[in-house]
Amino acid sequence: MKAKKKSKPEAIFTSKANVLKYLQKKIMRSKIEKIYDFTTTEWNKQENEILELISKKFNSQKVIVRSSAKGEDSLKKSQAGIYESILNIPSNSKAKVRSAISSVIRDYAQKGNKDPSNQILIQTQTQNIVKSGVIFTRTENIGAPYYIINYEEGTSTIGVTSGQIGNTLKIFRKTSNKDLPQEWRLLLQATNEIESLLGMDSLDIEFAITGEDKIIIFQVRPLTSTKKITIKNLDTKIEKIISKNKRKFLKLKKPIHVPGNFTIFSDMTDWNPAEIIGNNPNVFDYSLYDFLIMKKVWHEGRRKIGYQNINPYNLMVKFGNKPYVDVRKSFNSLIPEKISNNLKSKLMNFYLEKLTKNPYLHDKVEFEILFSCYDFLLDNRLNKLLKYGFSKNEIKKIKSSLTDFTNEIIDSFPIIFNHCEDSIQKMSQKRSAIKSHLLSTKGNYFELLNAAENLLMDCKKFGTEPFSSMARIAFIGSLLLKSLVRHHKINSNFYNAFMNSITTPLSEFQGDFEDYCNNRLSKKEFLDKYGHLRPGTYDIMASRYDRNGVFLDNIKFVKPKHSQLKPNYKELISEILNKCPLNFHNVDFFSFVRDTLKQREELKFEFTHNLSDAIELIVKAGQKLKFSKDEMVYLDIQTILTSYKKLKEPTLKLLWRKKIELQKKEKQINDYLVLPPIIFSKNDFEVIRYYVSKPNYITSETIRAELVILKNLTKKIPNLENKIILIENADPGFDWIFTKNSAGLITKYGGVASHMAIRCAELGLPAAIGCGDVLYDKLIKSSKVLLDCKNEQIIILEHEKADEYIEERKILKSLGYIK
Fold first, then answer.
1. Secondary structure (3-state) at 235
2. Separation CA 512–CA 514 (nearest Å)
3. Residues of the chain under the 50 pLDDT cut
4. How many whole angstroms separate alpha carbon 740 and alpha carbon 717?
């Protein structure tokens, strides 16, 4: 007897109802609810008979009336969620069933689909749902070998199709199911069965899990957005990389010379590599950030102002293409040197344990976990250590050390400030001298690279190292001010007014740009000062302002409105300062906070000039050696700087070519690797969890506007006027967006003291800085949002059913079905 041939996918994926009927009798590891379907033509001819049949077939149960248009789940396009579905209709109420069916048919017509063969799908309404969502059997767009589970908890299933799902889990396709919780193990078993039946591994499956751990399948459609994979044996190659990363993690996790028996890796703790160089930087970008800051400089700046010495210095680690901070080193580097070794160890154990239990705090460790300086809530925060085995005497010693440390910084701030001023001046003078000398040479590749190296070495000595000190002091100032708000000594309106009163290089930028627009400043003068800025400070592919005019097109100049501080608050602060152990007798508190932030931004503006000029020279040298910019992105800065002096041109070119080819191949495969925002164990390389981040909201305004996603900035810039800008990460090179009169800003990465947080506060621009992976992934599919900074929430308004969804969740919440 011949084996029965499998149906071809194109014969199966003709409509939602047809797919479900095909699978219903074949699946064993999941269930598809009872089905009854008919066409719009049949409905028009046999309405009463169909209503009678529905009543009998579903025996008074509640049903869901669903769309099932021709081609809705085809191989070419899914049209997921485009048409209406109506839940919880009593099958014995002909009037309600009729109304629901008519509503779905009307929805077809309103969306321009009047095909008479369009179906209406009636199914039993699933009861006792504890989780519902969508599982993609590969990642969208590139088809990386991971199951993506987007889900929500509770009885509602509307979030499945409305884009409001709040949880995401990604699981490597070859992960052993035995290590997974039962609900996900059963879901993957059901998914594997459907893949086998359809002979496809690129699927989009809607599901629910009941209280009895039964898997209910609502819909199966092809993943139509996935590109064809061109890398042979991709899944096996990713499996090998995962194994390699696990070994690397286990090696790095072992105890080292500083306190902490294990470590954690985070993409947003401390120096925030995800914010500065992105989630998937090129080889050149990563190596340059590492060279200038993360190898040694980040720590030298801290050590000089009194934090402990934690040799060796390297802070950043790369798994695949993704940069992480070694949290153990970070936390150790923020413990004052004068704290005893015993207390350092106890603090480290507390820090690591708290972050392990509260991973969503990994981008807010300074405010929620660490004790890196004195603040006005320190007593309350330190008292919590009693539950973790600290004695009252130990807590007293910690407070005393933190107070002394903070006072030492306050006392020495004028000297540090002047040193930074001198560094800025020296760096500027030496940069001019280096560029002037270069003009007197032949400008061959050797001279270009030599000039670039000199610029980068000065960038470290006079730029990033003092910046590391000042950035830390600025954070102390921000922490002090923030703790006053949390202590209810000043309100958020005052905080916003104070931050709005700070002037940084952005204020100069806007003032100079206004002069340029009004012909009081020539274009050359303007670009001499700001032309080095690039959206992506370390990105060799990013265009500078003086190389790409799109950043300065369509200016909608708006002058920042600076608020005045209320005098009564200054008096109140004086009373608080007089009662606290901090020594603000010779230094004004507000001047300290303001000057540290301003100086930090000025240092950053100046060192990025050296950095940007060096990148341009490296690109030119590469061109002289017949390497394009597209190739240079795969060459690391260490190779460049250690080889050009030692090797003759032919050998140099051969070395660079081999390095580029090797690192390009490695990065292209790593592009398919999915990695979590925070790594606690080797299992996190296979089962990737995301934690809902709480953004840092700027101002107390509420705005509703269209959302514009900024990605490719080499071409025409979209109209940003009165729009909310969505962007992954931003740095000084993105200051051009503040000349476009936008309504607000949302970033994926960033902290309360990040560059864009300071900029938005200075301008009074409503913003949500650091919304995290989960919310960002929803926002990129949105076109309109409500940014409510006052109530600290972002609501997606893109869907026609957004209001319906919000209303339903309010009802479910009032009934106690969801939290």
1. helix
2. 5
3. 1-3, 157-165, 799-819
4. 10
Q: What is the pTM of this model?
A: 0.87
CB atoms within 10 A of CB 3: 5
Q: For residues 137 and 657, what is the distance between their CA atoms, to the nearest angstrom?
A: 37
| Spatial distance between the Cα atoms of 631 and 254, rounded to a whole number of angstroms | 37
Give the C-alpha distances (Å, rounded to integers) separating 159 from 131, 164, 364, 774, 814.
Answer: 11, 5, 29, 14, 17
- Domain ranges in the chain? 34-125, 243-282+295-335+337-371, 504-561+692-819
For domain 34-125, which CATH number applies: 3.40.640.10, 3.40.50.720, 3.40.50.1100, 3.30.1490.20? Answer: 3.30.1490.20
Q: At the top level of CATH, which class does the domain 504-561+692-819 belong to? A: alpha beta
Nearest to 337 by CA among 299, 379, 375, 388: 299
Other CB atoms within 10 A of residue 623 CB? 14
Q: How many CA atoms lie within 13 A of 484 on its CB side?
A: 26
Tokens of residue 159, six digits? 């979030």
DSSP string across 599-660: HHHHHHHHHHHHHHHHHHHHHHHHHHTT--HHHHTTS-HHHHHHHTTTS-HHHHHHHHHHHH
**CA pair distance 559, 518, nearest whole angstrom:** 14
Please list the active-site residues.
Answer: 755
The DSSP secondary-structure symbol of 336 reads B
pLDDT in tens, 151-206: 888 755 444 433 344 688 999 999 987 778 999 999 999 999 999 999 999 999 99
Report pLDDT for 467.
Answer: 97
